[in-house]
Design a protein that fits this description.
The complex is a heterodimer of chains A (about 475) and B (about 110). Chain A is an alpha/beta fold. Chain A is built from 16 helices and eleven strands. By secondary structure, chain B is mainly α. Chain B is flat. Helix content of chain B is about 30%, strand content about 0%. The chains are: A alpha/beta (about 475), B mainly alpha (about 110).
């Protein structure tokens, strides 16, 4: 048995049937990390002791013949923006370089309660701010398909870990595309659930009205299993919705024939790479062949999504990042003489260039005299963007688009041009702003063998349809 | 140019950042480039559009209720040991760059 090639069900049943052990699975994945991660850089911290303790718990259950929970023995990676009790959690930032949280993120706790074995914490852009993983304060992640290219961001470590079999699945977070875009660049599945579907308790906040937690996996079914595990109301997060969680796995096999798929011209315009366009168009043809009806829809405010996003996300970030003051748990500069100097120098030395840029833009947009022109204006356009989707979803069951306008770009290619980097999220930020769910699944590759992603967007709290379509496409492809 | 070096200094002050001379120059350039792009929002007439602060303003709430009643599910009793136990003093101080076992320690605030 190839221990690094298993999906969730195969891994769990191999442990259940005593064909292998959770311990051996964990060791096989650590061996893979040892072997591969030197040149990839997907992990920031490993927590072997915690992993092997959990593996032992699962192995004892299996030995006693007890039925294992849904993720029993499955090795997972956790993006380093999710708090793990006793395990360093940096958010990819120097300012949290030594931070050891005293509690667990709800999503992580739910994964472990379902039997998952947490191998370690995956690399990411600082505070999840970035589209290339080059903003990690520690080291960039390299795209496994081409080490000279970026893995996407900000959940680049999670995507690369899954793509290279260093973890069966990983959790990531998505504020403007940070799960779907790296999934697309690394050739894996990435699901952003509806806003409120998954608790963010213990997620280090970037932009609270936009932050989501979701899975990166090798198969759509694995994404459904993880979502079923982490979804649902959590009293510790007042934004988590009090709605029942469907059995996403059972829903996968429902037929897709007759579903209406919206295709919006705004997602196929200028800037879309030809190879990506062809791959996505043939994926849409394939869905048509499965009996879906393709319906043209219009999302006219799409060209305003990036400016809207960068005002709202930075305004919220400037407020969320104010807590890093060098007093309670963050980096403090040495040799400071006054309180004010301590704040300034600690933040100056602790934050990287992109975090500072966003704090500055957000503070500017919220400052006296500019609030109405920038922040309030963006909130109004956010309403318009959301209405676009509401109108479209009156006529269709899902919307299909490219995940990203291009395949993975080269390391360094956009790192000196913040605006060019922001435009990499042009097809993903809209779903974050509207709060709707979206998935990216592999749909072919460029001539240079770089993966291309198909994005499927759904109605609020209708992850089931998104997953069902993605599953049907995956089976047919 | 919308943002000058003086603006950058003012905003850095609000955000408790110092920024080196070089960083300030880069920041003027980057903020202007981004704000120029953001300018396109003014093409839209939003005079009759409600601002959207939260997705949950619109979804995942009890639609039959009005105002804050829509979020009734998020209410909880205000009790001392509510949803989770408070952190012990030791745990709360554990990550502090400087603490004396009882308090966080910071440079002197008031000069005598």
């Amino acid at each position: 048995m190839q221990l690094n090639k298993l999906n969730i069900d195969a891994a769990r049943s191999a442990v259940q049937e005593r064909q292998t052990t959770a311990f051996a699975l964990a060791e096989a994945h650590y061996a893979r990390i040892q072997q591969e991660d030197g040149e990839i850089g997907a992990f920031l911290t490993l927590c072997k002791e915690r992993a092997l303790e959990q593996a032992d718990r699962i192995d004892r259950m299996a030995a006693e013949g007890k039925p294992l929970p849904p993720l029993g023995g499955v090795p997972v990676g956790i993006k380093d923006v999710m708090s793990t009790s006793g395990v360093r959690t940096t958010a990819g930032s120097k300012i949290l370089g030594k931070y050891i949280p005293p509690y667990d993120c709800t999503a992580v706790a739910r994964m472990e309660a379902a039997g998952a074995v947490v191998l370690g914490k995956t690399n990411c852009d600082e505070f999840a701010m970035g589209s290339s993983n080059e903003n990690s304060a520690f080291y960039p992640v390299h795209n496994p398909r081409d080490l000279n290219r970026v893995p996407g961001g900000s959940s680049g470590g999670s995507a690369a870990a899954v793509a290279t079999d260093m973890a069966v699945v990983a959790l990531g977070s998505d504020t403007g595309g940070s799960i779907r875009q790296p999934a697309s660049f690394c050739g894996v599945v990435g699901l952003m659930p509806t806003y409120g579907r998954v608790s963010r308790y213990g997620l280090i906040a970037f932009a609270s009205s936009l932050d989501h937690i979701g899975p990166l996996t090798k198969t759509v079914k694995d994404a459904a299993i993880v979502l079923r595990t982490i979804a649902g109301r959590d009293p510790m997060d007042s934004t988590s919705a009090d709605l029942p969680v469907p059995d996403y796995v059972a829903e996968l096999e429902k037929r897709v024939r007759g579903l209406k798929l919206g295709v919006a011209k705004e997602y196929f315009g200028e800037g879309l790479d030809d190879e990506v366009r062809h791959a996505v168009e043939s994926a849409i043809d394939k869905l048509k062949g499965l009996g879906c009806e393709v319906v043209p829809v219009s999302l006219p405010h799409t060209p305003y999504a990036i400016p809207t996003y960068y005002l709202i996300a930075t305004a919220e970030a400037s407020s969320n990042l104010a807590r890093y003051d060098g007093v309670r748990y963050s980096y403090r500069a040495a040799g400071v003489k006054s309180l004010s100097e301590m704040y300034r120098r600690s933040r100056d030395e602790g934050f990287g260039a992109e975090a500072k840029r966003r704090i500055m833009l957000g503070t500017y947009a919220l400052s006296a005299g500019y609030y109405d022109a920038y922040y309030l204006k963006a909130q109004k356009v956010r309403t318009l963007l959301t209405r676009d989707f509401e109108d479209a979803f009156r006529r269709v069951d899902a919307i299909v688009t490219p995940t990203s306008p291009t395949a993975a770009f080269r390391l360094g290619e956009k790192s000196n041009d913040p605006l060019a980097m922001y435009l990499a999220d042009i097809y993903t930020v809209t779903a974050d702003l509207a709060g709707i769910p979206g998935i990216s699944i592999p749909c072919g590759a460029t001539k240079e063998k770089l993966p291309i992603g198909l994005q499927i967007l759904g109605k609020h709290f209708d992850e089931a349809t998104v997953l069902r379509l993605a599953h049907a496409y995956e089976k047919a492809a | 140019m919308k943002v000058t070096e003086k603006d950058v200094a003012y905003v850095a002050d609000l955000a408790n950042l110092e920024l080196s001379g070089e960083e300030r120059v880069d920041m003027v350039r980057d903020l202007n480039s981004i704000l120029d792009y953001i300018e396109r929002l003014n093409e839209l007439d939003t005079s009759n559009v409600e601002p959207m602060a939260q997705v949950s303003d619109r979804y995942g709430v009890d639609e039959s209720k009005q105002g804050s009643e829509r979020f009734a599910y998020a209410y909880r009793e205000d009790v001392v040991e509510g949803l989770r136990k408070s952190l012990s003093q030791e745990a709360a101080l554990e990550n502090a760059p400087d603490a004396d076992g009882t308090f966080f320690r910071v440079p002197k605030v008031i000069e005598r």
